[in-house]
Design a protein that fits this description.
Length: 143
């Protein structure tokens, strides 16, 4: 199973991200991982939250422009060259990484990367074949 991500398109104006987080916080939906990128007009905010289904229903009720997609979550090994332990197998399998961001907190000592890839199941198999630990539902329980 993969992790559900919510991508929200916001206007690139002061307070738009604060409004989003306030709405989520008011319903006890906590952000586990976040990434934001802006253009002149808009900002794309990607979130992993503790309850993606409830968050999606809430965002729909407030008429946010969003989509729910699946991503991979993988622990970064604690050794030199750890990023290459993740990136090189994907490159060697000709799999494209669209974006990477990290969780706010950790489950153990390892940083957790959120990966948006072009071929999710193939990427999962490649990472597992290279002894990398993938995170699934436990990401929703990160403190």
């Amino acid at each position: 199973m993969a992790v559900k991500q919510i991508s929200v398109m916001l206007g690139n104006v002061p307070g738009s991200f604060a409004k989003l987080t306030h709405i989520l916080d008011s319903e006890d939906i906590s952000i586990k991982a976040v990434s934001a990128a802006s253009t002149t007009e808009n900002s794309m905010v990607r979130l992993v939250v503790n309850d993606p289904e409830r968050a999606a229903a809430l965002l729909a009720s407030y008429h946010f422009d969003f989509e729910v997609t699946v991503v991979l979550a993988v622990e970064v090994p604690q050794h030199a060259g750890a990023m290459n332990a993740i990136l090189n197998p994907l490159f060697n399998a000709d799999l494209n990484i669209h974006y990477i961001y990290t969780t706010i907190n950790r489950i153990g000592k390892e940083t957790i990367l959120i990966l948006g890839v072009d071929k999710l199941e193939e990427a999962r198999e490649v990472l597992e074949q290279n002894w990398l630990h993938l995170i699934d539902d436990e990401i929703y329980s990160i403190p």
